[in-house]
Amino acid sequence: TISDMVDFGSNTQEALIALCAALFSIVVYSTVAARFGIPTSESHSLIAGLSGAAIAMHNGLGGINMDEWVKVLYGLVMSLLLGFAIGWLLCKLLTIVCAAMDRRKTNRFFKAAQIFGAAAMSFMHGAQDGQKFMGVLLLVICLSNGRENASGVGMPVWLLLLCSLVIGIG
Q1: What share of the chain is helix, strand, coil (3-state, %, to 5)?
Q2: Which pLDDT score is estimated for 170?
Q3: CA-CA distance, 27 to 125, in Å (whole number)?
Q4: How many CA atoms lie within 13 A of 120 on its CB side?
Q5: Helix or strand or coil: residue 155?
Q6: Partners of 41 in beta bridges
Q7: Angle at the Cα of 80 (from 87 to 56), degrees rounded to 5?
């Protein structure tokens, strides 16, 4: 979806330059925001950077594929709502289940559960962020090879491994 939500036009050389400008703007924005302590989301920055570059390439909204853009918006809203609802339900369920337990006896279990939960959250965060940037890198590869978009192109295994490695190191 991330690679199909914008159309950079048929000139792949100009499209590659616009894509690089979009990615550079994400880095600049994130660096400045971090410097001033402003909370940021690289996901939102990525979407805004790609959309801005496509709008600039077409001198208007013609570069935005609204069908794909809506999918991204649904994902952003649904992940927020579902994460809140499931977290609230699990917290209430644990409160009910553990109400009669002795806290000293349950501390060992909850310490281990906290480590497991943090590891699972870290894994899912990397998996989710990795997908977005793999889509953009696939678009870069396609534009570099003269393709106008990444539709119908399979994700190379080496790209999956590279993104996993870089996110793991980071």
Answers
A1: 75, 0, 20
A2: 65
A3: 19
A4: 6
A5: coil
A6: none
A7: 160
Determine the residue type at 20: C
Reference 111, options 103, 122, 100; nearest CA is 103
Task: Show the tokens assigned to 123.
Answer: 């894994």
One-letter identity of residue 144: S
- 84 compared with 144, residue with greater pLDDT: 84
Q: What is the mean pLDDT of residues 131-158?
A: 79
pLDDT(58) > 70:
yes
The pLDDT of residue 151 is above 80 = no
Measured CA to CA, the distance from residue 81 to residue 117 in angstroms comes to 19
DSSP code, position 156: P
Whole-prediction pTM value?
0.64
What is the token pair recorded at 117?
A: 């939960």
68 alpha-carbon distance from chain centroid: 15
